[in-house]
Amino acid sequence: MKKSLSTLLLLFIGASSFAQQDIFALTGKDAANIIFQDFRALDSKKGITENILLSGKDQPRVYSSKLNKDISEDVKSSANALSSQIAALAIDGRGKLVYMPMFSPNIYILDSKTKDITLLENNLSNPTSCDTGSQFSRMATGNDGNVYALSNSGSQLLKISSKDGKYAVTDLGVVKDDSGNGENQLSKTQTGFGGDMIADDNNNFYVFSAFGSVFKVSLNDMKAKFVGKIKSLPENFSINGAAVNSEGKIVLASAKGGVFHTLNLETLRAEKMNNNLNMPIYDLGSPYVLKSNKLAVDINKNDIYPTKVSEGFVNVRIANNQKGNANVKVYNASGNLVSNQTITNISNSENRIELGKLVSGVYVVNVESENGKTIVSKKIVVR
Questions:
Q1: Which positions fall inside the Secretion system C-terminal sorting domain (predicted)?
Q2: Do 27 and 35 touch, CB atoms closer than 8 A?
Q3: Which of 34, 72, 163, 211 has the greatest count of CB atoms below 10 A from its CB?
Q4: How many domains in the chain?
Q5: ∠ at Cα 73 (68, 78), nearest 5°?
Q6: Pairing, β 281-285 against β 269-272
Q7: CB under 8 Å to 288, separation ≥6 — which residues?
Q8: Where residue 170 sits, what CATH number does that domain have?
């Protein structure tokens, strides 16, 4: 037991091995018009783009969650699974692609393995062609595994969640501007098409306008705080896609084509990526979020966070490949058990674990299955 605990106490935070395909993209036919071409899986580090998941020429199976059956859609309508204008994409906690066509409230879930598509009918939104602010062109998956979609003007934030394989959509309301934003208002700079957003490990979101304004959105108060303007982007570069890659870097792409860029969020400086990715991008999505220690978090993996604890709790995320109950055990630096709590029905779950009044110091949080096997373990520092 002591040997096992000693091993746990030597744990350190490290990046998981890089997946070859770490970013997904909605790509276009050309840079002049918004015309959907295909869904692609990209290797942002090496610039590999050959993996086309689904093309606009395909005829996928579409299943209606409302009607509980397969349906046929009008391919000439803007409200169909392969509409010619799609600009919002994310990868959910189950590894599926979630997206929304423009001018439509419909939400679609694409299984990249089977190519099947599920239609989630959404009666909470009403985007109209005469109101660009009502369109959804920015989407990201939060650290909780839920997908969040924000309208161009911030007038509506949707949460798309899944439980036991069934999807649901919730209207979280309006994202309002912080009082200190001055002339840099989310509601004004976001009314045009374009832009995207990413999430961090505290479930905050960073929203990018097409022309480089950055806002930090907190779900706690539903406010957007202006962060600043991105520097060093080419003059004709409009931000249409943003995602976190497996290296923890923010990747930016444009519907006008051109090379991809990375962004340093602290300095707001963009740099060209050293790869051959150069194509019209309407949106980017990935299974990663920004982590406070600069490494990437894979939302499809088991995790414990934050590792620097100042508010008396940690979150335990269990991926959907686990079943049953789990015990969350906390050990102090001497290897003594100081807390033992149970999580029920752990499949694809996110749980807040209260730590009580632990004194400042180093601890190890060990999550064990019912048979005593370790699911995930992390060293934490209680301040």
A1: 304-381
A2: no
A3: 34
A4: 2
A5: 120
A6: unpaired
A7: 22, 243, 244, 245, 246, 248, 296, 297, 298, 299
A8: 2.120.10
